[in-house]
Design a protein that fits this description.
three-stranded antiparallel β-sheet, eight-stranded mixed β-sheet, Glutaconate Coenzyme A-transferase, single chain, globular
Length: about 260
């Protein structure tokens, strides 16, 4: 089955208001920036995004955030995004901060048909006990807090029950992909992308290089095509545009 669609706009056209999105990437590495831009132009709002972070103020999910299109974020950290922090603390955005490994496993579990799992991470803390602020009001008062979670002892150690994540749509970016939706990620871009691709009910992949079926070595495929419903082939210019979240350089004249 040929899953290639003509444009990013066409690929995201049915993402409507209130949808939940699982979005691949880490910082600005491996993010589906072209699909995010198409979603921004499409006008969908009141979105909930599940992603490790929210990009930066002017790139990645930060673009949707700046346009006030995001209602809720499930993520691991605020990162370099000042607008993310401002909206959260001013009561404009609900944020469910989740330990990074737990977030990854919640997404993987959702794609594997596992409804919940026990993990030691968060045991004995507010992650398990509840009370973490999810939403503030404009005066800084907590209006929504995390609920207490079920815990159980295994081998004398406390474990916390975490529910899997299944999103309405998943947006990912791959280095190579074929028309059947088989995907290969490159280097550190193989971060949250495979997990996001798994947990979306409908997964859309933008690929830097589109190849024909049979050209990918099956041993090198990271996301099988069964998880992917739509593929968008990027132009060379789109594929080359990759921003650095925070550039650090050595002052001129410093010894190596």
């Amino acid at each position: 089955m040929d899953k290639v669609v003509a444009s990013a706009a066409q690929a995201v056209a049915d993402i409507g208001d209130g949808s939940t999105l699982a979005v691949g990437g880490f910082g600005l590495c491996g993010i589906p920036s072209v699909l995010i831009e198409a979603l921004l132009e499409g006008g969908a709002s009141d979105l909930e995004a599940v992603s490790n972070n929210c990009g930066v103020d002017d790139w990645g999910l930060g673009r949707l955030l700046m346009a006030k299109r995001l209602r809720r974020m499930v993520s691991s950290y605020v990162g370099e995004n000042k607008e993310f922090a401002r909206q959260y603390l001013c009561g404009e955005l609900e944020v469910e901060l989740t330990p990074q490994g737990t977030l990854a496993e919640r997404m993987r579990a959702g794609g594997s048909g596992i409804p919940a799992f026990f993990t030691a991470t968060g045991g004995g803390t507010q992650v398990a006990q509840g009370g973490l602020p999810w939403r503030y009001d404009d005066a800084g008062n907590v209006t929504v807090s995390s609920p207490a979670k079920e815990t159980r002892a295994f081998g004398g150690r406390e474990y916390v029950l975490e529910e899997a994540i299944v999103a309405d749509f998943a947006l990912v970016r791959a280095w190579k992909g074929d028309r059947h939706g088989n995907l290969v990620y490159r280097d550190s871009a193989r971060n949250f992308n495979p997990l996001a691709a798994m947990c979306g009910r409908l997964t859309i992949a933008e690929v830097e290089e589109l190849v024909e079926p049979g050209e990918l070595d099956p041993n090198h495929v990271h996301t099988p095509g069964v998880f992917v419903q739509r593929v968008v082939a990027l132009s060379p210019e789109q594929a080359a545009e990759k921003r650095i979240e925070k550039r650090t350089v050595r002052p001129k004249g410093d010894p190596a």
